Automatic annotation (TrEMBL):
Pathway(s) of this molecule: Amino-acid biosynthesis; L-phenylalanine biosynthesis; phenylpyruvate from prephenate: step 1/1
Protein name: Prephenate dehydratase
Entry's EC annotation: 4.2.1.51
Single GO BP term: L-phenylalanine biosynthetic process
Keywords on record: Amino-acid biosynthesis, Aromatic amino acid biosynthesis, Lyase, Phenylalanine biosynthesis
GO molecular function: prephenate dehydratase activity
Residue intervals of the ACT domain: 201-278
A UniProt-annotated Pfam family: ACT
GO cellular component, one term: cytoplasm
Organism this protein belongs to: Peribacillus faecalis
Residues carrying the site annotation Essential for prephenate dehydratase activity: 175
PROSITE patterns found in the cross-reference section: ACT, PREPHENATE_DEHYDR_1, PREPHENATE_DEHYDR_2, PREPHENATE_DEHYDR_3
Family matches, as PANTHER family: PREPHENATE DEHYDRATASE P PROTEIN (PTHR21022), PREPHENATE DEHYDRATASE-RELATED (PTHR21022:SF19)
Length: 287
């Protein structure tokens, strides 16, 4: 298969794809929409893109693009532990406390707020398209005393020195990546452990119906369907118009979830199934 991901090389997305699909053709792309468009246009078989981070929440561009721009089912999810490191060009190793700017992805900068606030107070941060792009930028500009927040894989790939490891605010930092494809995807089990199965639903509520969200949740509750996530996103059709994304902790069956959907549709809701899939976790931390 041809598997595309948010690049360049040495991002956490790249690390996840290498672990989950070690024997496939792996191609980096510059943006999440480019990854999803490639699968939609049959230029790639699979896209692996970030959906949610344990510290910073949802990656909204992924959610919105899946709902509004492409119709591709979620075929799996991969949870990857995230370790952020502070790195500089070897020429600037001894001057890292006097860097003029810190570069990284916006989520990585937010995940390391405490370190930046206490150790580099007043030093500006600049957003890049990915953590690896930040590391690459630091490598290509040795004349500038700048730093990147990125992975150990990025430090090795771009020849940077990690001067402060593990600077993320919380040790349980994890990113949830989704696997999107037109066809079912088989996962090797060498570097991934199985968590369970999920079904993701998109629910549009009828207008001007007081208490409707409570009614929707009740349809799941009385069937004892556990929801691991519920999130609202704008419909982009007008102020105050939202849809809800719901993760049900079970695979699509023939009774419970279809019965829930029928009940919600009878109440005037519009329900779409975005995917019913296996959940995996990368074994161990990045080395």
């Amino acid at each position: 298969m041809k598997v595309v991901h948010l690049g360049p090389k040495a991002t956490f997305n790249h690390f996840t794809v290498v672990k989950a699909f070690p024997n496939e053709e792996i191609v980096p792309m510059m943006t999440i929409p480019e990854c999803l468009d490639a699968v939609m246009a049959d230029q790639a078989d699979v896209a692996v893109v970030p959906l949610e981070n344990a510290l910073e929440g949802s990656v909204t561009i992924t959610l919105d693009y899946l709902v509004h721009e492409v119709k591709l089912p979620i075929q799996g999810e991969i949870n990857t532990p995230i370790q952020q490191h502070f790195m500089v060009h070897p020429h600037n190793r001894d001057n890292w406390r006097r860097v003029s700017c810190v570069y990284s992805h916006s989520h990585a900068i937010a995940q390391c707020h405490k370190f930046l606030h206490h150790e580099l107070k007043g030093v500006p941060s600049d957003r890049m398209t990915s953590t690896a792009a930040a590391a690459q930028f630091v490598k290509e500009n040795p004349q500038l005393n700048i730093a990147a927040i990125a992975s150990e894989l990025a430090a090795k790939e771009y020849g940077l020195d990690i001067v402060r490891p593990n600077i993320h605010d919380y040790s349980h930092n994890t990113t949830r990546f989704i696997v999107v494809s037109k066809k079912p995807v088989e996962f090797p089990e060498t570097d991934c452990s199985i968590n369970g199965k999920k079904t993701t639903l998109m629910i549009e509520l009828p207008e001007n119906h007081p208490g409707m969200l409570h009614t929707v949740l009740s349809a799941f509750a009385w069937r004892k369907l556990n929801l691991s996530k519920i999130e609202s996103r704008p419909m982009k059709t007008g102020l105050g118009k939202y849809f809800f994304l719901v993760d049900v902790e079970m695979e699509l069956d023939e009774v419970l979830i279809p019965g829930t959907i029928q009940e919600l549709e009878a109440l005037g809701c519009k329900v779409s199934i975005l995917g019913s899939y296996q959940s995996f976790s990368i074994k161990g931390l990045q080395s």
